[in-house]
Amino acid sequence: MESDGQRMNILVADDDPAVRRVMNILFKNGGYTLNAAIDGAISEKPRCPIDERIQRVLYFIHENRHRALQNRDMARYAGLSLSHLHLLFRQQTGNTPRHYIRGVRLREAKDLLETTALRIKEIAARVGFRDNSHFVRDFETFFGISPTRYRLQFMLNLSFKKPQDSSVLNAGRAASGSSR
Known about the structure:
It contains 9 helices and no strands. The protein is mainly α. It folds into 2 domains: 17-99, Arc Repressor Mutant, subunit A; 110-160, Arc Repressor Mutant, subunit A (Orthogonal Bundle), CATH 1.10.10. Helix 1 (17-27) runs antiparallel to helix 2 (52-63), helix 2 (52-63) packs across helix 3 (71-78) and helix 3 packs across helix 4 (82-93). It is elongated, with a radius of gyration of 20 Å.
């Protein structure tokens, strides 16, 4: 078993980073209960192991995050009633299924804003939002900044970062013919 604070890398058949992320969350520290699942954090003082049915629901959410997910479908997948799914999911993750799904989608949108040149409308559709204005409002509520401003700020931060590795600096000086 790993010591506290270390992440366990789990190999998953799917190449999707979001699926790997949830699998790492589920199996870190022996699969203990999620605390603030939206942030993907594990409780430092585990209360109880994550119920296998909730693990299945979390996997189902990550596999189908781009689709219109209904609580009844997740309940059926886990073999639970709607009310038991809601109660158990909230106990285990600290969030409702709807809130958790929104967080998964918004974190993926944030990643796409950082790594692609897709338009905001395209990102919203790709992560499962049917309405662009709803996406923008939720993104701003969740991260405290609009998607457009987030991308701009991210790009500005990238352009002002200095290389940390001195070998990169030295290689640049050597290529330009300057010396110290």
